């Protein structure tokens, strides 16, 4: 569970109908989309699986903005009367402007209800902000509550590391988001389970590698570590030095498999071999995945 720092007290509301209303960035059209459903009060994913015909989507043109006819179409889809239609138009206009002004990636009202006086009320809501835009949304950044976030992910942000905790036992340290995804995929292909997503960035430094290792070993579920670095911008020999420093100073106790490729790769491998540390090197990604999965199972 999460610590509770504040409580919202809401008056009891009589509910006649429960609806769903959301605004989200539609990746396929690269536009903001309105999603609406007459099946509110439950997970929209469940509605999509069981009754996809009850979910209505309306794409907003970024040049034209939200049009009245689109808002009316949403109200028709939800089966609202004339009075409720006017309320919904005003609500949608406000939500759309909020979405733009605050750099949001999601607004979800679930349920949007019709009360016993025949009025629309937003009974519960969720808002997601684009992290990349927080630098210009300082008022929203001030509301951030680190106690509600994963502690390791909060620490990672401090050192410009992209870290997400997962449920597996094989930790990954990779430079580049695409390579990190491919690394997790191949770990699963060879029968393992990733413990995290960790992208140290294309310009990874020895210090960043050190901080990444500290994050990894703080996860008690980790039983093996796979380091997969492509030395394009960064040199493999510098990364190798950072790995050795981290292993010595952090006190890594689990098996480590390292796959280096790119600039100064032979020097990097030589540095790892001469370190006298129990670090296993791999020739390619498939070899690395095979070795780290075996190590996590105790076959080392």
How would you sum up this structure, described in words?
This protein has 300 residues and is α/β, with parallel strands linked by helices. It has two domains: 15-142, ATP-grasp fold, B domain (D-amino Acid Aminotransferase, Chain A, domain 1); 151-295, Succinyl-CoA synthetase domains (Rossmann fold, 3-Layer(aba) Sandwich). 38% of the residues lie in helices and 25% in strands. It contains ten helices and twelve strands. The strands form three sheets. Strands 1, 2, 3, 4, 5 and 6 form a six-stranded antiparallel sheet that branches. The chain has a four-stranded parallel sheet with strand order 8-10-11-12, with helices on both faces. It has a two-stranded antiparallel sheet with strand order 7-9. The chain is elongated, with a radius of gyration of 25 Å. The two termini are 37 Å apart. The model has no long low-confidence stretch (mean pLDDT 89).
Structure in a nutshell:
This protein has helices at 44-50, 68-78, 82-101, 138-141, 151-158, 177-189, 206-217, 236-251, 265-274, 285-296; strands spanning 15-26, 31-37, 55-60, 104-115, 120-122, 125-129, 162-165, 170-174, 196-199, 224-231, 256-262, 279-281. By secondary structure, the chain is an alpha/beta fold. Strand 1 (15-26) and strand 2 (31-37) form a beta hairpin.
């Amino acid at each position: 569970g999460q610590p509770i720092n504040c409580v919202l007290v809401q008056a009891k509301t009589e509910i006649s109908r429960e609806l769903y209303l959301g605004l989200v960035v539609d990746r396929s059209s690269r536009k903001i989309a309105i999603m609406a459903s007459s099946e509110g009060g439950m997970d929209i994913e469940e509605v999509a699986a069981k009754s996809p015909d009850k979910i209505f989507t309306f794409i907003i043109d970024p040049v034209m903005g939200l049009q009245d006819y689109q808002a009316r179409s949403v109200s028709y889809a939800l089966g609202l009367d004339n009075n409720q239609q006017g309320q919904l138009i005003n609500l949608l206009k406000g939500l759309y402007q909020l979405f733009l002004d605050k750099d949001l990636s999601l607004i979800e009202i679930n349920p949007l209800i019709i009360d016993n006086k025949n009025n629309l009320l937003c009974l519960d809501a969720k808002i997601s902000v684009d992290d990349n835009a927080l630098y210009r949304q300082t008022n929203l950044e001030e509301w951030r509550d680190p106690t509600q976030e994963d502690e390791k992910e909060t620490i990672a942000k401090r050192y410009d590391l992209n870290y997400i905790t997962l449920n597996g036992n094989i930790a990954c340290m990779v430079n580049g988001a695409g390579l990190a995804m491919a690394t997790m995929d191949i770990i699963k292909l060879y029968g393992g389970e990733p413990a995290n997503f960790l992208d140290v960035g294309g310009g990874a430094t020895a210090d960043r590698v050190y901080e990444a290792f500290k994050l990894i070993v703080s996860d008690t579920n980790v039983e093996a570590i796979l380091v997969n670095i492509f030395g394009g911008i960064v040199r493999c020999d510098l990364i190798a030095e950072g790995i050795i420093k981290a292993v010595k100073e952090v006190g890594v106790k689990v098996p480590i498999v390292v796959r280096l490729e790119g600039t100064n790769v032979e020097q990097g491998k030589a540095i790892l071999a001469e370190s006298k540390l129990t670090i296993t090197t791999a020739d390619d990604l498939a070899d690395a995945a095979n070795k780290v999965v075996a190590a996590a199972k105790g076959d080392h």
